[in-house]
Amino acid sequence: MAYYQRGAKSKKIYHSPYVIVGILIVAVFLAISAFHFYDAYRTTRQKRDEARAKLEELTAHKTEVLQELGDLDTPEGTERILREKYRVGKEGEGVVVITDPTPVVATDAPPKTGVAGFFERLFSSKK
């Protein structure tokens, strides 16, 4: 009987409102901590992906720079790079720069009619 009474007393303790509230508070703190860990994990993963993309970009840039450096070892490569970057030519050569033609804008628009045209002609600076 004493064994049964000890078990009943422990059940009363586990089912008391104070213990239940305490367990709920601990559960809330655990949930908040889990959320913070997940947020830190997500931020770290995003930064890792950005770092990997930057690494790929820098690796590609490194190969380009090494290729240009290899081109500088030869006289033809040096000449080509000088011509591209500084637009220079050999003695007796001229440099031709080709640009896109500018679009032609029609300035002779038909005169406006009506009230708006009257006031525009009245206050225009051309006579």
Distance between the termini: 120 Å
Number of strands: 0
Overall pLDDT confidence: 82
How large is the share of residues in beta strands? Answer: under 5%
Number of helices: 4
Unreliable residue runs: none
Radius of gyration: 41 Å
The helicity comes to: over 70%
Structural class: mainly alpha
**What's the shape?**
flat
Please provide the ordered H/E string of secondary-structure elements: HHHH
Taken together, the total number of domains comes to 1
How many strands, which pairing sense, and closed or not: the largest β-sheet? none
Quick tags:
mainly alpha; single chain; 127 residues; 4 helices
Report on the architecture of this protein.
By secondary structure, this protein is mainly α. The protein has one domain (2-99). The protein is built from 4 helices and no strands. The protein has helices spanning 2-14, 17-72, 75-86, 114-123. Helix 2 (17-72) crosses helix 3 (75-86). The radius of gyration is 41 Å and the shape is flat. The mean pLDDT is 82.
Write the layout of secondary structure elements.
Blueprint: H1 2-14, H2 17-72, H3 75-86, H4 114-123
Could you give a short description of this structure?
The protein is mostly helical. It has helices spanning 2-14, 17-72, 75-86, 114-123. The chain has one domain (2-99).
